[in-house]
Amino acid sequence: xxxxxxxxxxxxxxxxxxxxxxxxxxxxxxFMGVELMLNATNLALVTFSRMNGDLVGQTLAFxxxxxxxxxxxxxxxxxxxxxxxxxxxxxxxxxxxxx
Amino acid sequence: MNGFTxxxxxxxxxxxxxxxxxxxxxxxxxxxxxxxxxxRLVQVVLALLALLGALVAVxxxxxxxxxxxxxxxxxxxxxxxxxxxxxxxxxxxxxLLSLLVLAxxxxxGQGAIAPSVATVPGSEAERLAREKGLQQTEVYPLVLFATGxxxxxxxxxxxxxxxxxxxxxxxxxxxxxxxxRERRLLSQxxxxxxxxxxxxxxxxxxxxxxxxxxxSGSLRYADIxxxxxxxxxxxxxxxLGSVLVLVGLLFKVGAMPxxxxxxxxxxxxxxxxxxxxxxxxxxxxxxxxxxxxxxxxPGLQWDLAPVLWGVAIxxxxxxxxxAMVQTDVKRMLGYSSVAHAGFLLTGVVALDxxxxxxxxxxxxxxxxATVGAFAVVSLVRQGRSGGAQLEAADLSAWxxxxxxxxxxxLAFSVFLLSFAGIPLTGGFLGKFSVFSxxxxxxxxxxxxxxxxxxxxxxxxxxRVIVRMYFTPPADEALPADEVLLVDDATAGSPSDAATGxxxxxxxxxxxGTLVAARxxxxxxxxxxxxxxxxxxxxxxxxxxVLLGVLPQPVLDLVGSAAVxxx
Lengths: 99, 566
Fold this sequence. Notes:
The complex is a heterodimer of chains A (about 100) and B (about 575).
Chain A: H1 4-23, H2 27-52, H3 56-86
Helix pairs in contact in A: 1-2, 2-3
Chain B: H1 11-33, H2 36-68, E1 71-73, E2 78-80, H3 82-103, H4 124-131, H5 139-152, H6 159-176, H7 184-216, H8 221-228, H9 235-253, H10 261-268, H11 271-296, H12 301-324, H13 329-349, H14 353-379, E3 380-383, E4 389-391, H15 401-404, H16 406-420, H17 426-440, H18 444-470, H19 482-491, E5 524-526, H20 532-549, H21 552-559
Antiparallel strand pairs in B: 1-2, 3-4, 3-5
Helix pairs in contact in B: 1-2, 1-5, 2-3, 2-5, 3-5, 3-11, 3-14, 3-20, 5-6, 5-11, 6-7, 6-11, 7-8, 7-9, 7-10, 9-11, 10-11, 10-13, 11-13, 11-14, 12-13, 12-18, 13-14, 13-17, 13-18, 14-16, 14-17, 14-20, 14-21, 16-18, 16-20, 17-18, 17-20
Organism (chain B): Cellulomonas marina
Family (chain B): Belongs to the complex I subunit 2 family.
Membrane topology (chain B): Multi-pass membrane protein
C-alpha cells in the first residue's frame, strides 16, 4: 500500500483535532483534540521515517509521546483546579478577562 | 552486532544549561528533604546561585566563541555561537532579576504566590493554609526548569531540540501562571487559557516539524537549509512546514494574530511570573525565530517574506491601537509587549547581519525595562493599610503615585519612556537599530509603519506618566465590582506572619521610608519591599538609562556576535 495514504490520514486526523480544539467548549474535550493533533503528527513522522528509510522520525515520535504525557499531567492538573473552583470545565465560563 | 559507542559530549559548551537544569532537579529534592521552615531560603539561594552560575558559564564560553565563531555540540543538536550565547546571557540576567521580585514577600508578608495553590479559592482549606503560613516553594524549581528550556531554545540546532526546549520552557510557565495569591480566579483562568492555546500552538509547530522532516529527510537545520537549495517536487511540504513552524514560534513571541493569550495571561499571572514570562520567553522565542529564519529558510525569502511582513505590520498597528483603550495596567503592558513583538519582527525580517545585532540589543533593552516595570507594578497596591492589599490593577489607582512614592513613579516613568522609544533610554537605541536594519534590508515600509506605531504608542505610555504626576489621587473608595469582591474574600487577612511587621505596609520601596499611613478604606498604597524588588527596580533603572546613554560596549558586543553558525 502506498505510504502516502497514511500522510493523508494523518492530515485528516490533525485537522479533526484542530477543529476539536477550536470548536468544542469543554476544556477536557479541547485537550483531547490537542492529543489527537500530536498523535496525527506521530503518524506522519513514522510514515516519513518509513519513506526515508531511516529512524529519525521514529525517534522523534518517542519524544512526542513523552512530551504528550507530560502535557497531560500539567493540563489535567490545571483543568481539575479550575473545575474544583467553578464546578464547570466549560471554556465559555472562563471569561473574567476580556478586551 | 556492534558494541555501544558512547556519544562524544562537549560538557563545557553545555554548562550553562546543565547548571540551571541540575539546580532545578536539586530544587525538587529540596522540596522532599529540607524541613519546611528552611525550604524557601534554600530554594531562593539555590536558584540565584544557579542563574549566576549560568551567567559565569556563558562568560567563560564567550572568549572561545568569539575566536572560533562557535561550535556545534552533540552532533549539531545544540549550536553554541554568538547569538545563542547573547540570548543565553540575556535570559540568565533577566531571570535573575525577576527571581528577585518573585522571592520578595514584602514586609507585610504578602508575596505574589499563593500559600497553597492546590486549595480551592475561598475555601476553608485555603484559609487554613494562610494561617499556617504555608508557602508554595515549588515555584523556584519551576522557574529554573523554564529558564533551562529558554537557554536551549535559541541555541537549538535541530527541530527535535527545538520542540523539546519549547515544551520544557512552556510547561512550567503554564503552572506558574496559575499560582497567584490574590485574584486567584483570574490566575487560574490565565493558566487554562495559556495551557490550551500553548498546547495547540506546540502541536501546530510539531506538525510543521514533521513536514520539514518529510521534505528533507533530516531534522538538522543545516541539512534542511542545504535541501532548500535544490528544487524538488516536495517544495509544497517545505513551504507549508516552514509556515507551521513559524506559527508555533510566533505564538511564543506573541505576535498578532497569535497573540490572543498574551494580555489575559499577563493580567492573570502573578506579577513576578509575568515579568519573567514577558522578558525571558520573548528573548528565547525571538532567538529561536532568528535562527530559524536566518539559517533554515533564507532560500525561501520570497515565499515567506509576505507572511512575516504581514504579521509584523498587523502586530505593530493593531496592538498599539488596542493598548490605547486598556484600563488595567498589566493588560496594557501585555498589549505593549505584543506591539514590541512587532518591532522585533522588523529586525528579524530585515534578513541582514545588522538585523541580528539590532534585534539582540532590542531584546536586552526591552527585557530590562519589562522586568523593571512589572517589579514596580508588584509594589503598587490598593487596599487597607495593614490589611489585605491587592495589586493596583486599574490605572485609576495610579493617580498621584508620584506624591506617595517619587522613586517608584520615577522608575516607572523611565521604563515607560524606554518602551515608547524616547532618546536617552535603551528602548530608543533598540528601535533605532532594528528600524535602520530594516531600511538597509530593503524593508523600509516596515520601518515606516514601525515609526508611526511607536509615535502613536507614546500616547498611552505618556498617559500613565501624566496620571502618576499630574492627577490628584482619588480619595473615594474604588468601585468594587463583583470580581473584586470575590477576590477580597479570597485575599483574606495577612495573618501568615512569616516575615512579621504587618502594620508597616506603607512606605517607599527604594528607601524603606515610612510615610503617614491613612486609616481610611480602599486606596492606593505602596508595599514595602523586603529589599529584593527594590534591587531589581534599581538595577533595571540603571540598566535602561545606561543602555540609552552609554550603549557602545553592548553594541560592540552584540555586533561581534551577530553571525549564526550554519
